[in-house]
Specification:
2 copies of one chain form a homodimer.
Chain A lengths: L26 H14 L5 E2 L11 H9 L13 H12 L10 E4 L2 H12 L2 E6 L3 H10 L3 E5 L10 H13 L4 E7 L11 H13 L3 E5 L16 H4 L4 E6 L12 E4 L4 H17 L5 H11 L3 H27 L12 E2 L7 H8 L4 H12 L1 E2 L1 E2 L12 E4 L8 H9 L7 H18 L11
Parallel strand pairs in A: 1-10, 3-4, 3-5, 5-6, 6-7
Antiparallel strand pairs in A: 2-8, 7-8, 9-12, 11-12
Helix pairs in contact in A: 2-10, 3-10, 4-5, 4-9, 6-7, 11-15
Chain lengths: 448, 448
């Protein structure tokens, strides 16, 4: 559906018709580019805005891409047999039995999510807050997003009771609701929804005949590796699509390769056909050399498993340290449980921020941090939070270093917080947070 | 806009709402998969359906991809500075002065075309016949396609007079028309529109304020290398977008990397902003390692230029031979001028085909060729031709061999038609065409 819904004017002429899509640059990519600009201007930047793993490609993975570099032929839209078998093994080892025929690959899980949303049509329920692109994609490719708040303390999953209310209400108004998107573990909050919440969500989805799209791109980065990720594919296998990619746990965001696991059965068959149709007209297939490397990655060879283990520990350690720095100035921060995000709330400091800096909204606060102090973070509003909420998403993963050498050192050491560049960045963060939140000294009384 | 336009029913529930996209698999990819199936069934297949260059990746290009295999970071949506500069050089050397800021890359020119159509909105005029995906994309991402016939003997460009009529008529009905797509040289007909036609098209586009999208993916495969490609970017520079990729002249279809050249000036600036917005929410960027290799390719090092020269000669030689085989049985065939396509018309044989085989439509004829004889081609109707037209697109490029060794031999030899596997395929083609078109011997009179 077009973003603009005005009826077409009879006098419309030319290159900017009413149906034209006005899609602003994705905020996460925009902040990445804004940071790069600031750096070029010579500003000392603390890059906490962009959701990138901030780690090098493992040499074994690069080697496999090089080995696939002579693959120039178009292949099946769904992806190579080798990649689909490897992804099926990956999910099967995680308690989600998967046949290769259930797997569809694409140029990033973002593209697959777009194709799924387009295939579903109707309105799509998404958590509030949630990753910036869900709402944008639902507006571009379907009939829009319905944002439903997450339960207290749990990110990534709409509150099941509120979900049911929202869908019933929308349908009673003649609107059509097709699916619900969840993120496990969550971006932006870094939390992981409980099994109980996911089970209840699945019950609601089944009762209301909703397809569940479970974005599990951070699955292997749950900080406590003994903790299970409660995938809706386990509780509503007939209606759950799972997506993942190499972007986060293997730090290959720039490679653009993702996979979707479609449900077995009639819902899955219809969705698969539709998704392949959409993919065939937008991207044809995932790049063949990347497919070759991704097949290797999803087979989980020991050297990559070890790399993911080290990455997980690093993300957990630094996210916890960032959390502590925010808590030290009085912000409230949900304990991060996965990925490399922290989602502090400055509500306790609202009065002071308003009095000292005129801050009324989350965007006021993040603009202050960026323009005055070179700290790049994204306001909660970018993720669907209320404008006035003083929450922000902080990515801790771009603190690991500026060079490959520094990043490898961060992966290698048992105590990354002692590395000078990480310690410096954390101290700089504390300094900025203190400057922004410190009580203003009383103005000296005027003398006359 | 949704493919289905029924109003949403108030009672709609669940996973297949009225807005859901039903996009069938792209016919060109579908025929590729059908051929693979036939082969697995043990059928001797003559693969003439799929628009793939059928040649190996040049080792120097593969080496560059390998050299970029450690690039895992997300980069700018528009692509790396190196790729944009290289593509700007490529176009500038072809008489289209280009600044790097005018270049946007993406995961294939198909994805860029989708993004452009979505950015334009409104209805999109496309030539009839034309590449299968233009109409599908206009239906998925904009308000549909208006097919306008090409001038006699020229493919890839809607007849300028008919274009003007169609746009004026659509607008008088309150519909909004945003752009026109052209293909230079053309797929499916293998012809190249004349400079005069392109100039007139540009005048009409300017008068009617239409953006021109010029798909020039086959530009470097014009059979006569001394012949200039008349790009609308030369005659209507303020409103023409040009797209190209590595898929055809460098046979890297499976790599999924393309570039668009946006016009300089206000139309280009708006389109660029919109295209980057759409790209940021669907594909983020082209894969970083492919960008690295594509920067090398668009810098046109001598070894790749030589490869393209050899490829061009091979395509020209085999397309001409295929043309002769079709002409020998009485089909009419426009002389191929570029790419690796032949577009024969069996109209002169209509009565016989109907009497002997019940063939009434192009699809009847291509089904007969596939099911009875293992020859895979696509009917003209897949490209927007009339159902009853007995035209078909024949890709000549998958005859070069089944192995890399055979394909390299085809590139190396001055006379590829003498290579046994190519000669055999051409003879098999003649045999099938003879069997399908030969006059039926009179039935022996019944004796009793």
């Amino acid at each position: 559906m077009p973003v603009q819904n005005e009826s077409t004017e009879a006098t419309s002429t030319g290159s900017r018709p009413s149906g034209a899509r006005r899609v602003p640059l994705s905020p996460t990519l925009a902040i990445n580019e804004a940071m790069a600009r600031k750096r070029r201007e010579g500003v000392r930047v603390l890059p906490l805005g962009f959701g990138e793993a901030g780690l090098p490609i493992h040499p074994a993975l690069a080697r496999e891409l090089a080995a696939g570099s002579d693959r120039g032929a178009y292949g099946p839209v769904a992806g190579s047999a080798a990649l689909r078998a490897a992804a099926a093994g990956y999910w099967s080892r995680r308690g989600l039995p998967t046949e290769p025929g259930m797997v569809v690959s694409g140029p990033g899980s973002k593209a697959l999510l777009f194709g799924l949303v387009m295939s579903l049509g109707g309105e799509i329920v998404i958590p509030a807050p949630s990753w910036v692109s869900y709402a944008a994609q639902a507006t571009m490719a379907a009939e829009g997003a319905i944002q439903v708040a997450t339960p207290p303390g749990e990110g990534g999953v709409p509150s099941p009771a509120l979900l049911a209310d929202a869908v019933v209400r929308a349908r009673s108004q003649g609107r059509s609701v097709a699916g619900v998107v969840v993120t496990l573990p969550d971006n932006p909050t870094g939390t992981l929804a409980s099994e109980q919440t996911v089970r209840r969500l699945c019950e609601v989805a089944r009762e209301l005949d909703l397809v569940i799209v479970s974005d599990e791109i951070y699955r292997d980065l749950v900080h406590d590796p003994s903790r299970d990720v409660p995938s809706p594919a386990a509780y509503a296998p007939e209606r759950t699509v799972v997506t993942t990619a190499l972007s986060k746990h293997l730090a290959a965001g720039g490679w653009r390769i993702g996979v979707a696991r479609l449900p077995d059965g009639p819902i899955g068959e219809t969705l698969r056909t539709d998704l392949l149709g959409v993919g065939s007209e937008i991207w044809s297939s995932a790049p063949a050399p990347m497919q070759h490397a991704a097949a290797f990655a999803f087979s989980e060879p020991p050297e990559l498993v070890e790399r993911v283990d080290r990455s997980r520990r690093l993300h957990a350690t630094v996210a916890a340290a960032v959390t502590a720095r925010f808590e030290a100035v009085g912000a409230r921060v949900p304990s991060p449980e996965g990925a490399f995000y922290v989602y502090p709330d400055f509500e306790p400091l609202r009065d002071r921020l308003r009095a000292d800096h005129g801050v009324r909204t989350g965007a006021d606060l993040t603009e202050l941090l960026l323009e005055r102090h070179g700290v790049g973070v994204l306001p909660g509003a970018a993720f669907g939070d209320a404008e006035e909420a003083l929450r922000m998403r902080v990515s801790s993963s771009l603190l690991y270093g500026e060079t490959e050498e520094q990043r490898l050192a961060a992966l290698a050491t048992p105590d990354p917080l002692t590395l000078p560049w990480i310690a410096d960045s954390l101290d700089r963060l504390s300094e900025v947070l203190a400057a922004v939140t410190a009580p203003t000294p009383l103005a000296a009384p005027a003398t006359c």
